C-alpha cells in the first residue's frame, strides 16, 4: 500500500523540515556553526584522553542547573541558611538528591580538573603557540577552586563554619594586605550574615560569570591553536592522519558525560550528603577539617609553624603557581614525548605525588 501512495505525501513532512531548516539557516547561519563545531580536525583521531575537557564543561553546566534549583529555597543569612538547607533536605521533593548531586559534582569537578591538567601536561599540550591557551586554563583552575571554597560555607553547619574560619584566617597571614582581605571576605571582624551573603554572591554570580567568560576564551583559543594531537608523534612534525570531532569523539564525550551522570546519581541516591548541626561559634571543641581537595594544603601547614607559617601559606603555593603559569615559557622545546622531558615530568610528578601524599 505504501508503494501506491503519491510521492508528495510520502516526502511532505521531510520537505517541511528541510524548508524550516533552510529558513532557520538563512537567519542564523546554524549550518556554519555546526560545521565549525563538529568538523574540527583531531590529529591522530578520537581518543579517550580527550574527554576530560568536555566532562568539565558538562559538570559545570550540571552545577549551574542544580544550583539554580537550590537557590530557589536558600536564604543567605546566618539565621536562615542552615534552616533553609535543612528544609530542602527534609521537606522539598528530591531536595536531598539535588543537594547531593551538587555537592558530589563539586568534588567530581576537582577530580576531572586534575586529570585534565595531568593529561595536558603529559601530552605537552602547552607547547607551540599555546601559551595563552595554557594561561586561560590556569585561570579556570583557580576559579574552580574558588567556587569550591565559596560554596563550602553556604550550608552554615559546624564543618563549613570552622573550615571556612581556618581558610579566612590563613588569608590574614599574607603580608600588608592580609588583614584587609580577611575583613573583605568576612564582611567584618567576625563571621556572620555578611560573610554568608558575600560568599553567596561570589559563588552564585561573580565566579560563575568569570568561569563562563574564561570557558569561552579557552574554547576560542583552543580552536585557534588547534588540537595538539598525541605526544607519540615527532617533536617538530604533525601526524598525517586526522579525524573530525563528529562522530567518534562526540560519542566518546557523550559516553563520558553519561558515566558521570550515573556515578553522581548513584552516589546521591545511596549516600546522600549529610547536613551537620548549625554552626556554633562558641563551640571551641570542634576540630575543623576541610574538604579533601584542600586537605593537602591543610596538612602541609602543620610543617610550618611560628615564623615559618608564611612559607606554607604564601611562599610554597606562590612558587607552585608560578611554575604552572611559566611552564610554556620555561619549556620552549617542541619535544612533547614525556620520556624526552625528564626535568618537566619530574617536577610535575613530585608536585602530584606531594598532593596525594599530603592529602592521604
Provide a count of the helices: 13
Strand content: under 5%
Q: Please describe the biggest sheet, giving its number of strands, its sense, and whether it closes into a barrel.
A: 2 strands, antiparallel
Query: Percent range for helical residues?
Result: 55-70%
| First-last Cα distance | 71 Å
The helix/strand order is: HHEHHHHHHHEHHHH
The chain-level mean pLDDT equals 90
Order of strands across the main sheet: 1-2
Unreliable sequence segments = none
Quaternary status of these chains? single chain
Shape: globular
Class based on secondary structure composition and strand pairing: mainly alpha
**Radius of gyration (Å):** 24 Å
What does this structure look like?
The protein has 360 residues and is mostly helical. It is built from 13 helices and two strands. A two-stranded antiparallel sheet has the order 1-2. α6 packs antiparallel against α9. The chain is globular, with a radius of gyration of 24 Å. The mean pLDDT is 90.
